[in-house]
Amino acid sequence: MDSITQAALGATVAGAIAGKRCNAKVLLVGALLGTLPDLDVFLDYGDAVNNTIKHRGFSHSLFVLPPLALLISWLYCRFRPDPFWSFKRVSFVTLSVLITHTLLDAMTTYGTQLLWPLDGYFELRNVFIIDPLYTLPLLLAIGVACFAKQHGGRWCQAVVLISTLYLGWGYTAQQVVAKRVEANLAAQAIPSERVLITPTPFNTVLWRIVVMDDGKYWEGLASLFDQDSHIEFVNRPLSVWPLEEEPTTLMGLRAFSHGYLNYREESGMLIVSDLRLGMANNLSFEFAFAERDEVGEWALLESTQRYPGERGFEHLNTLWERLKGDQEIDANLQRVERTL
Questions:
Q1: What is the DSSP string of 230-281?
Q2: 3-class SS at 302?
Q3: What is the pLDDT of residues 2-59, one digit of tens each?
Q4: Counting beta carbons within 10 angstroms of the beta carbon of residue 246, is it exposed (0 to 12), middle (13 to 18) or buried (19 or more)?
Q5: Cα–Cα dist 292/243, whole Å
Q6: What does R_g of the chain's alpha carbons equal in angstroms?
Q7: Structure pTM?
């Protein structure tokens, strides 16, 4: 999730555990701990692909966070002893904030290396990386807790429960859409071996579906407010890696994306796209891997580069109309391709 949400979650979790001892200091410490795992974004792994796929790595690992929590707690108790905030209480708060951070990240589509240094990216894809309906209650609880004194902890406890229920709602909505997708793929004779279902920006009502096929992939939208269960799928060309040599960065990107990759040539550059995040023709993660040399042959770049996209908010209204169940928009899906 975004940094504001993670800080808000950390503060609210800390306030919920503190209970009657909840105050501005507890909330601030919780917010700082909530942002700690994401400080790995300042590490440079050498190129654009590695900076992307190694984010949410060691700093989000369930093998690393518990000993880190114990170390932070020991240091705090060593230099700031407090009869109430014993090592046991401090370590419980610290571990809770750090673990809820990485578990929330694992519910987005980006992917989180929960078991680093073991290989594997985990994601449930039941919530978008920015969702106001999840974040705003957390911010409200923090605001109330700053002034409610003894009742602040209760507000935090209530909102932590509400936010958890919202994540459960996202998973339930995803499963409802999944059953509808399964029926549509069978009815339309589209292969169903590799199907991706993920929320569109800022909500858990409108869902994007990507289906991989031989030589093409299918893309569609499904809203929980649709009156008709039919899903309009648009097929798009799916290319393969054109070079004999396969760099290790490509292997890493393939693992990160679970194979949801596409390849194209644009302006003499070989572009590799992660199909999971964004919309067709305007995807969030695109990388330049090679360029044409003087004789027209592909030459791998010394280091991969982010390929710039043009994402904006001007078409969010179209997605909003589609969210409300206007399936006529699906006949012209290109209208929303330039959305986040």
A1: ----EEEE-----SS---HHHHHHHHHHTT-EEEEEETTEEEEEETTSEETT
A2: strand
A3: 999 999 999 999 999 999 999 999 999 999 999 999 999 999 999 999 999 999 999 9
A4: exposed
A5: 12
A6: 22
A7: 0.92
Other CB atoms within 10 Å distance of the CB of residue 224: 15
In whole angstroms, what is the distance from residue 110 CA to residue 53 CA? Answer: 9
Q: Kindly state the tokens that stand for 248.
A: 């290790």
Cα 162 from chain centroid?
20
Q: Rounded distance, CA 301 to CA 139, Å? A: 44
Contact 224, 280 (CB under 8 A): no
First CA to last CA across the chain, in angstroms?
15
Structure tokens at 289: 């891997």
Beta-sheet strand order (sheet of 261-266): 261-266, 269-274, 286-292, 298-306
* 273 contacts 261 by C-beta, under 8 angstroms: yes
**Residues in Cβ contact with 133 at an 8 Å cutoff, skipping those fewer than 6 apart:** 166, 203, 204
Q: What beta strand segments (E) does 17-175 contain?
A: none
Element (H, E) at 292: strand 286-292
User: Strand order in 216-223's β-sheet?
Assistant: 195-199, 206-213, 216-223, 234-237
Residue 6 confidence (pLDDT): 98
Half-sphere exposure of 136 (CA within 13 A, CB side): 5
* DSSP output for 179-234: HHHHHHHHHTT---SSEEEEEPTT-SSEEEEEEEETTEEEEEEEETT-SS-----E
Contact 210, 218 (CB under 8 A): yes
pLDDT tens digits for 71-113? 999 999 999 888 888 999 999 999 999 999 999 999 999 999 9
- If you ran DSSP here, which 8-state letter would residue 312 be given? B
Q: Exposed, middle or buried, 234 (CB in 10 Å: 0-12/13-18/19+)? A: middle
Q: What is the pLDDT of residue 338?
A: 41
Residue-level pLDDT at 340: 41
- Residue ranges of the domains in the chain? 3-169, 176-336
